[in-house]
Design brief:
5 strands, 9 helices, Rossmann fold, 195 residues, binds BIS(adenosine)-5'-pentaphosphate
Length: 195
Amino acid sequence: MLNLIIFGPPGSGKGTQSAKIVQKYDLLHLSTGELLREEMQKDTPLGREVSKYMDQGLLVPDDIVWRELYEYVTQHLDAPGFIFDGFPRTIVQAKALDHLLQEKESHICLVISVEVKEEELFSRLMGRGEDSGRSDDSAEIARRRLQIYKDQTFPLISYYKAQGKIVSIDGMAPVEEVFSRICNAVDGFLDKQKV
Ligand code: AP5
C-alpha cells in the first residue's frame, strides 16, 4: 500500500493537493476534517459534540477522531493506499495510526510537509471564508487554528523526522507548481522502492 500523510498548517493546501494526488496515484482521500464536518451536517449527538470544538477552532478529542478514522480505514482495507489529510494532529494520533497500520502489515511511506508563510495562510483562509460556509474560517478562529497547529501539531515533524519519512515541500507557489513538487517527491520514493 502507498500510504501518504499530507501535513501542514490550516490553509497550506492539504485538501487542494490531496484531490489531485488521489487522482494521479489512485489513493483514497481520508480527511478527518471532512468526516467531522459530515457528522456536524447530520446534526447527530456526535455532530453536536464535535461542533463545540470545531466552531472554536480547537482540536476534537483524540478518542472521537480516532473512532471516525478507524471505522473508515478498516472499511477500506482493500484500497491501494490512503492519503491522510489533517490526521494525525497529535502524538497520540500518530502512534495509534502507526499501530493500526502495523497490525494490517502496512506503514506510512512518506509525510509530505507543505510549508507556507503565516500571512499567506491567513490570507488564503480569509479568501476561502468569503464563500466556504465553514464556521471556523473567521479571522479570530483562523488565528486560533494557526496557533493550535504551532503548539500541538507542528511537533509531529520531529516524530516523523526520527522515522526518516518527512519530505518538505515549498507551498508558496501556484497550485500546479506545488503539485508538481509533490509528485517529484512521491515518484522519487516509488523509484527507490523498485531498486
Ligand atoms: P481540517 O478540515 O483538517 O482543516 P485544516 O487543517 O485547518 O485545513 P484547511 O482545510 O483549512 O486547509 P488546507 O490545508 O486543507 O488548505 P486548502 O486546500 O483547503 O480541520 C478542521 C477542524 O477539524 C480542526 O480545526 C479540528 O477542529 C478538527 N479536526 C480535523 N482533524 C482533526 C484531528 N486529526 N484531530 C483533532 N481535530 C481535528 O486551501 C485553503 C485555501 O487556499 C483554499 O481557498 C484554496 O483554494 C487556497 N489554496 C490552496 N493552495 C493554494 C496555492 N498554492 N496558492 C493559492 N491558494 C491556494
